[in-house]
Amino acid sequence: MKESSRKQGAPSPCAACKLLRRRCAEDCVFAPYFPADEPHKFASVHKVFGASNVNKMLQELPEHHRGDAVSSMVYEANARVRDPVYGCVGAISSLQQQIDMLQAQLALAQAEVVHLRMRQLSSTANYNTPENASPSSRGRQPHHAKSHFNMDMAMEEANVDDSFWP
Ligand SMILES: [Zn+2]
Fold it and tell me: In this entry, which stretches build a coiled coil (predicted)?
């Protein structure tokens, strides 16, 4: 009996059990996620959440979700250690700012695309009147240029226009 119980305790304990100075049972809930060679993972999670809370959270989850939960807790704990006030909220809000900035840039780029398309369409529509101002001087305000377009020409080109403006 003594021999077998000694054998059970022989394998090196997981990082959690080592830190908590307890025997690492074969069905230890921490062992699969906190290997002995990564002691810092459990150290920060224990510091921020507490070992018994981590234990409780893992017990409540189906096994196939535990790995993700542990990565999430380790990430959150490390963020909280780095930034005790905001934790990972600091990272989230800085990413949110980046998203807002990029969305504004995207909106500007899309507006520019629409602007350039309008300009291209209006210079194609004016194809028959090269004596008008050059496309570069006129192109800045295609709507404006079109509204001041010679009315006779506009009437002549009415059916051509239809094909260009779906
Ligand atoms: Zn263990």
Answer: 92-119
29 Cα to the center of ligand 1, angstroms: 7
Report which residue type is found at 73.
M
| Sequence ranges of the domains in the chain | 2-82, 90-164
In the reported structure, the alpha carbon of residue 38 is separated from the centroid of ligand 1 by a whole-number distance in angstroms of: 13
Q: Which residues surround ligand 1, an ion (CB under 5 A)?
A: 14, 17, 24, 28, 30-31
pLDDT in tens, 27-36: 999 999 999 9
Treating both helix axes as pointing N-terminal to C-terminal, what angle do 39-48 and 51-60 enclose, rounded to 10 degrees? 100
Burial degree of 21 (CB within 10 A; 0-12, 13-18, 19+): exposed
List the structure tokens of 48.
């921020």
**What is the model's pTM?**
0.57
